[in-house]
# Entry
Amino acid sequence: MLSFEVNFDGLVGPTHNYAGLAPGNLASQLHGGQPSSPRDAALQGLDKMWALHELGLPQGVLPPQARPATELLRRLGFVGSDAEIVARVHAEDPGLLACCYSASAMWAANSATVSAGADTRDGRVHFTPANLVSHLHRSLEAEGTSRLLRQLFADADHFCHHPALPALAAFSDEGAANHTRLAPEHGLRGLTLLVCGDERHPPKRFPARQSAQASRAIQRQHLLHDKNTLLLYQNPEAIDQGVFHNDVIAVGHRNLLLIHEQALMDQPAALARIRESWGDDTPLYIEQFSNAELPLSDAIASYLFNSQLVSLPDGGMALICPQECRNNEPAKAAIKRLLHGDNPLRRVKFFDLRQSMRNGGGPACLRLRVVLSEEQLVAMHQGVLLDAPLYEQLGAWIMRHYRDRLTPDDLRDPALINESRTALDELTRILQLGSLYEFQR
Ligand code: SUG
# Structure
């Protein structure tokens, strides 16, 4: 049966800004307080989606979430009109207002963990929205993500939705950023790698954002076969140096895994387990990079491992890289070595995603991978699948509604509330999503 890996990219929302909300994510810390350009951010993301469509790959669009999340502020006891509440919170606690305005749902890799039907015991695609409890601004995403995924993948014969895990640090779940699927073909049983922190060896400076209990719960919920699922521990020293998700230090697709030598605890043993569990005649290629070849700081600065690996329709794979890899000598050399090595990689394409990168979100952060059979692809909501007319419409929509510049101080502007809602209201018509947002009900 024909199967596809569909990338669903988070469309950047109209309130994209730099608020320095994520300790442990060096880029977010570095750029907090600087002005952003929501318009450039959205166009950069859309251009990447279009480029993948042009490569012949199915590409989906996930709408932004409604911000400001005034429902949180009301829950915290603020009263009055939305504009009054925003003015008051800006005066009293601007950090809280920034959380409610964050466009962080754009990093769709963190939105959910998704297992392919070929890997689950009931043959359905399983979804668990991430609770993202490690950060307030991100924890606000879980509910909207759950609603959206249930709406896009509604057919219960093909799709199974689980609730987000309990909103507690012990179950901290950051979605697919810590999930890698290796498989000989999209439609064949694959190997699921669940990467998480090891509470016996916690990092010293920054938190491990994926807990082992969460990963184990997902393994059970998704009916994954034990012998095809590996729980692997992140190297706490790498977390302390800024590797806040596994997708900052490794990327895997089908039978190719790119990984820095400092990604995992006891990495030689972890890689040996991966090779043993692979169990297929198709060769598995693991390209490991030493710290001498690619210092961890360069891996983080260039975001090489946050590239997307995709299969081209005419065979071979392409690496979808952030342009920062072009200006980083060790990353450039690493790409050259990959292109000349014995592995399926054939092409590299560079993208300007600077707006997202400044908040620590590269190409792979922006997408959620969903492996679908032909039948499942037809069964999902078609309005979010990118084609030429939708690409044109979205580009014009961004130009009509998005500001060119936004500073943290602009968040107090009451006009931004309605501006964002008007934009999203129109978007639900473009994507044929009905009344997706609470403010539309
Ligand atoms: O959760 N940044 C996001 C970036 C997420 C990247 N995703 C993956 N690696 N998959 C985060 O740290 C910064 C927001 C701010 O500072 O304004 C932020 O939330």
